[in-house]
Amino acid sequence: MQQKKIVFLASDCESSRWVYNELIKSLEIDAAIIEQPLSKKTLIKRRIKKIGFTKVLGQIIFSAVVVPVLKMKAKNRRNFLIKDYKFDFTDFPEGKTKRISSVNDDNCRILLAQIQPDIIVVNGTRIISKKILESCNAVFINMHVGITPQYRGSHGGYWALYNKDSQNFGTTIHRVDSGVDTGAVLKQVFTTPAKEDNFTTYPLLQTNIGIDALTEVLEQALKDNLTETTHAEKGNLYHQPTVWQYLLNSTK
Fold it and tell me: Looking at the DSSP assignment, which residues form a beta bridge with residue 237?
């Protein structure tokens, strides 16, 4: 019954495996194009250029000191959620997978031009360039763990709680454009974290509700029946918290 081609364009991370392995239960994925992560050195240099040395230093301290403690504290909760949600860590199938250094390099452009997909599912990649977005006639659909336009960028669930805006703890399925999570909204879903959740488990909650929403949107896309909502406002762009942002706020 499925006649359109779907390509999975994603970063090489556990959430991409969770999403991919759930989607293939009900949809045919023609190919997985997997981007390799940036080196920490390159990532830090880019962050400093965008947001400044002081903020990046605070992020590094947060990642090195606070996050390991939060992971240890939430270890049992994380294991419970992974089991309860039946998240599958199986790697992408070798026969259908192409690995690239970046979604924005020529190898990606050439692959998309060759496959000519109708739908491209995006998960966790760096910002996709206009050149790649225009390399084929596909609709690019992303699952963002945050509510847009209010919480664009990283850790949308955490920042919603940080801002005492718990009603906007959720996940957005949206079209991809050349901005950062600024594409038209296709579906939004919401949930509420438990007391035992923290910064390290929020993305699991958001990914779980997002997978079902993404599946529903893809089924609509296969029928050319997408419903879009555009926003005049651009909202705020968030990054990983610094150690002082985290410690000076009651959100855990």
Answer: 152
Average pLDDT over the chain, rounded to an integer:
95
| Alpha-carbon span 177 to 129, nearest angstrom | 9
Q: With beta carbons less than 8 A apart as the criterion, state whether 178 and 103 touch.
A: no
- What phi, psi does 11 have (nearest 5°)? -80, 160
* Residue where the block lists tokens 């992020």: 59
Q: What is the pLDDT of residues 34-78, one digit of tens each?
A: 999 888 899 999 999 999 999 999 999 999 999 999 999 999 999
CA gap 246, 198 in Å, rounded? 11
The 3-state secondary structure of the chain reads CCCCCEEEEEECCHHHHHHHHHHCCCCCCCEEEEECCCCHHHHHHHHHHHHCHHHHHHHHHHHHHHHHHHHHHCHHHHHHHHHHHCCCCCCCCHHHEEEECCCCCHHHHHHHHHHCCCEEEEECCCCCCHHHHCCCCCEEEEEECCCCCCEEECCHHHHHHHCCCHHHCEEEEEECCCCCCCCCEEEEEECCCCCCCCCCCHHHHHHHHHHHHHHHHHHHHHCCCCCCECCCCCCEEECCCCHHHHHCCCCC
Rounded to the nearest 5°, which phi and psi values hold at 183? -70, 165
Residue 202: how many CB atoms within 10 A of its CB? 24
**Which residue in 103, 136, 117 sits closest to 37, CA to CA?**
103
184 close to 230: Cβ distance less than 8 angstroms: yes
Which residue do the tokens 């801002």 mark? 163
Q: Identify the residue whose tokens are 């942002």.
A: 245
Q: What is the per-residue pLDDT for 55?
A: 96
